[in-house]
Write a structure and sequence with these properties.
The chain is an alpha+beta fold. It has 11 helices and 11 strands. The strands form 3 sheets. It has a 5-stranded mixed sheet with strand order 6-8-9-11-10. A 4-stranded antiparallel sheet has the order 2-1-4-3, covered by helices on one side. Helix 2 packs antiparallel against helix 3, helix 5 runs parallel beside helix 7 and helix 9 crosses helix 10. It is rod-shaped, with a radius of gyration of 44 Å.
């Protein structure tokens, strides 16, 4: 590569100078070392041809061969200091020298050029391979652009490389420099294009004294520019895909909300309307127990409707980031007893067992923890078989209070144990029952108290939802808004 850089930066004048200087120097050395021997001068002249071909290229080597032929004739062939040749064998020797020198110079120069081309192709392949790897690396786009600018400095002998581009609403500027403050020289600018769109530009600046990019260097610069354009186009497409995916997820959430709310609002409303309609029928006689059953049904469905509306309001508060607890020291077992007493009608079809161990008070919002327990117990009652057991356990655990609500239902598959905390997700065992909001709201409340919540398999089959609340006041756990 060093030979290529030297010859590429040269000119016809330099090639001519090398072609003249090499045989002249060979002549002077021959005169000094062996002034009377033409045979001793021949190797020096051949060496001069090789040096001229290496430094000046093919034409310098051929020119040095011809000039060396003339100087060898003039200084070392009888009669000396003339261009006449006295002996026939000297003519043959001179012609053979010219042919051999020309062939050596031509072959040596071509070999060096082939080597330089191979090194150039290797350099180009290595640089473009690196740029392609950066395109596919998934690194942030500003870092990719900065690496691109740095990668072009050494191979193209630039003192500064600038990339200015625009992707969507974002402006990207990457500038890399080297050369220890070398003065700016010629600059080459290439436009970044993706189809018919202009994305920006790349500018390469060489130091003063060097020529502008040309030939192989210019082709390599333009190839690198195309790779940069590919990276920018990919980032633009990724951004479009991300926006489309976000919009699709938002539409899906809206559709799920509409479907869930429609179903879950109409079900209790239908029960309430049926009960009230029956009570208002004058031609149907009912005894006191029948009327009480209808009124109790209306009350239970009204409570169910109220809980659904409360969950929807809490979902809106989670999205707005305003679900902040009003903490006060609270005994969790007392909250559990209060919830169980209030939910007696809902839990009528299951057997509830409680285990309370000596647990300290924790700083919580009792209203919000009441809602967490309500949602968990409602789920446990919904998925438990008739007469199944629901276990509620409260116990201290490593600086926190742990609450466990277990049922004997169908359970939750391990792969779904994280997804069931997403809003509107019901899983494969839900059978379309419930709004899919209870666990999402419970998780938001527990994390807002600085705790954690998860799902385990129950020992006797079924599901255990476990949450922990820290005894010491804790900051909320960062969480994504419910989608």
């Amino acid at each position: 590569m060093a030979w290529k850089r030297f010859t590429a930066s040269g000119s016809p004048a330099r090639a001519t100078l090398v072609a003249v200087a090499a045989p002249v120097i060979a002549t002077l050395l021959s005169i000094l070392l062996e002034p009377d021997s033409a045979l001793g001068a021949v190797p020096l002249f051949l060496l001069g041809v090789v040096v001229a071909a290496a430094l000046g290229g093919v034409w310098a080597g051929l020119g040095s061969s011809v000039l060396g032929f003339l100087l060898l004739n003039y200084y070392f062939t009888s009669p000396r200091h003339t261009f006449r040749v006295a002996h026939e064998e000297d003519v043959v020797a001179l012609v053979v020298f010219l042919i051999v020198a020309a062939i050596v110079g031509w072959l040596f120069a071509r070999t060096l050029e082939a080597r330089a081309r191979a090194e150039g192709r290797e350099r180009e392949a290595r640089l473009l391979g690196y740029l392609a790897m950066k395109v596919l690396s998934g690194d942030p786009l500003p870092r990719v652009m900065d690496d691109f600018a740095g990668a072009l400095l050494e191979p193209l002998r630039l003192v500064r490389c600038e990339i200015h581009a625009r992707v969507g609403d974002d402006t990207l500027d990457a500038v890399r420099e080297r050369g220890g403050g070398a003065a700016d020289g010629p600059a080459t600018t290439s436009v970044l294009r993706a189809g018919e769109s202009e994305l920006g530009s790349v500018t390469g600046v060489r130091s003063a004294g060097l020529e502008a990019l040309s030939g192989d260097d210019l082709r390599l610069f333009e190839a690198a520019t195309r790779q940069i354009a590919v990276a920018l186009e990919r980032a633009h497409l990724d951004a479009q895909i991300g926006r489309a995916r976000t919009e699709a997820e938002r539409d899906q959430a809206r559709a799920a909300l509409f479907s869930s709310v429609t179903h879950d609002l109409r079900t209790p409303l239908a029960s309430i309307k049926a009960g009230v309609t029956s009570l208002l029928q004058q031609d149907v006689s009912m005894d006191a127990s029948q009327r009480e059953d209808l009124l109790r049904t209306v009350l239970e469905e009204t409570d169910r409707l109220n809980r659904l509306v409360g969950n929807l309001l809490d979902l809106a508060r989670v999205r707005a980031g305003s679900l902040t607890p009003a903490k006060e020291p609270t005994a969790i077992d007392e909250v559990v007893e209060s919830v169980l007493h209030r939910m007696e009608p809902t839990l009528r079809g299951v057997q509830v067992r409680t285990i309370f161990r000596d647990a300290p008070e924790v700083p919580v919002d009792p209203v919000q923890i009441d809602q967490v327990l309500t949602n968990l117990l409602e789920n446990a009652a919904r998925y438990s078989p008739p007469g199944g057991e629901v276990l509620v356990a409260v116990s201290p655990w490593h600086g926190s209070v742990q609450v466990r609500v277990s049922d004997q239902g169908p359970g939750v598959e391990p792969d779904d144990r994280e997804r069931v905390f997403e809003a509107f997700y019901r899983g494969g065992t839900a059978s379309g029952v419930g709004s899919g909001l209870g666990l999402a709201i419970a998780r938001a409340i527990v994390l807002g108290h600085g705790g954690r919540i998860w799902i385990e398999g129950a020992p006797g089959g079924g599901t255990a939802v476990v949450f922990e609340l820290p005894v010491a006041d804790a900051e909320p756990v960062p969480q994504e808004p419910v989608p």
